Amino acid sequence: MAAPQAIVIGCSAGGLTALEQLLAGLDPALPQAIAVCCHTGSANVDLMCELLAKYATLPVEEARERAPMRGGVIHVAPSGYHLLVETSRRFALSVDQRVSFARPSIDVLFESAAEAWREALVGVVLTGANSDGARGLLKVRQGGGVAIVQDPADAESPTMPTVALELAGADHCLPLADIAPLLNRLCLP
Amino acid sequence: MNSPAGKAKAPDTSLEDIEVELFVRALKLRHGYDFSQYAPASLKRRVLQLAHAQDTGNVSELTTRLLHEPGFLSVALEGLSVPVSEMFRDPDVFLALREQVFPVLASYPQINIWQAGCAHGQEVYSLAILLEEAGLYERTQIYATDFNEAALQQAREGIYPAREAQLWSRNYLAAGGRHTLADYYSARYEFIKLDQRLNRHVIFANHNLVTDEVFCEAHLVLCRNVLIYFSDPLQDRTLALFRDSLVRGGFLCLGTRESLDFAPSASDFAPVDAARRIYRLGSRSAGRD
Prior knowledge:
The complex is a heterodimer of chains A (189) and B (289).
Chain A: E1 6-11, H1 15-24, E2 33-38, H2 45-55, E3 60-62, E4 74-76, E5 82-85, E6 91-94, H3 106-117, E7 121-125, H4 134-142, E8 146-150, H5 159-168, E9 172-174, H6 176-187
Parallel strand pairs in A: 1-2, 1-7, 2-4, 3-4, 7-8, 8-9
Antiparallel strand pairs in A: 5-6
Chain B: H1 13-31, H2 40-53, H3 59-68, H4 72-81, H5 91-105, E1 111-116, H6 122-133, E2 140-146, H7 149-157, E3 159-161, H8 165-174, E4 185-188, E5 191-194, E6 202-206, E7 218-223, H9 232-245, E8 246-254, E9 269-273, E10 278-281
Parallel strand pairs in B: 1-2, 1-7, 2-6, 7-8
Antiparallel strand pairs in B: 3-5, 4-5, 8-10, 9-10
GO molecular function (chain A): phosphorelay response regulator activity; protein-glutamate methylesterase activity
Enzyme class (chain A): hydrolase
Keywords (chain A): Chemotaxis, Hydrolase
């Protein structure tokens, strides 16, 4: 299996707390490019980046249109826009209609990232109270990438992981505390 | 734990890409609308969305309809072009226009404003209301342009779903509105209709940023969240078009998440309020070569 080059993470209700824990557990040596789409808390993306940076072991910054998705950096989707990854692996934004009532939508990020990174992508679906992310995760798997879903029993809001498991299945389904160690194992050379 | 669902079989995504490319090609060859320089990821989503909305099994069916069905072009353009918008979206931007740009515009005897890519017109009416309240509207001419005729028609009419009114009213107040938004519209059933007097200094015109040229001399160009759909060369062409349309010292206002970092033409613009993406032409910032 090819080593992953990128990680996309999606979450909603309860997502900020979950992200704090997950990002705190990542090995600072991870070379992968990371993009995060969280429905909650991104209304002020500067504040959210600041908050996550307190916990994260890697630099956190807002994902900016046209900027490359850089290795070893955590890019956060701004609110009010969909975040997409072009096949050139640069970011793009759109103000198209909400998808699954959300903008930014996890599906939009995951689906475009799956086309950009194909089998070199890891998709992670965490806690959330809606069905966004399931279709995106399916596309990640169809492209040959790895799918990780938080165990619904362990999630603050189980809906999002449950729907993702039903539609896409997962290569790994485990409690939040075990996800960062798994990513470190999968992603370090 | 591994889920029982095995790996799904990889679909032939490249086939999808071929179909999208053929559709874009047909649009250009048959109707002269060139989307080839749009940012690919969101364009592809829109084409697939259009196929889904039209209930066609695949994009090739769209292409067939585009080639053979006379009325289908407007449906396709509507699907590909119109982003959702709201009145006074990003109220702080409109507040900044009111406080930082209008005082300069007030020094001109005649004010020309170009709103490029006006879509359904929400921002045109927002701008007209602000100018009215600043006492500048009588000497202002707004050119509101879009390449999508159906959208322009809707913009002229100024009829929007009533469910939007609450959010727009909040935005209006946050933008420094002096009355209530309800003073500017009449509500009927599920719709609101904006006071058509707000239109009295607006010319709605068909203009395509991809192919058309300078048509006016503007003191302010507003083009928010249009460039995000353009690939780098088209973005650069468009910025050059704005530059050539603006008077010296004229203002440019873009969407709050739009980036000029990859546009050579942007070197002509200096930030007035960088966070709100308000720039000024030709007033070089200090310390620049």
